[in-house]
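hey so u asked for the seq, here:
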Amino acid sequence: MGDEKINKNQLDSRKLIYTKQGERWLSQFDALDQETAKLLLNSLTLVSHTEFRRNLEALILDVSTKIAGPVALYAVRELKKKHDKGQLFSSHVVPFFDQVIKSNNGKM
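ran it, structure tokens below
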């Protein structure tokens, strides 16, 4: 690894292990696995939410210009599942619209 300059607005992932969250994260591993977990944590590249969003938008726009015709994007997320009593796992998915909460102005 070289000594790349880190943007002053960007966190150095090598410092994460010394934070309280980093220590808590590391404590979940067995002592034998903690060194490997440190290597994993130190290999991360951290980017801000804004930088991630900008780069993702640029990538989407770039790819969409190479496709003939309309392009659609769909948000995908895991839906809540209703847990039945006495069962460890359940495949009963709560309908999406049951999970929507209206805002104060009546819009979703």
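Residues 13-98 form one domain. The mean pLDDT is 78.
lmk if thats what u needed
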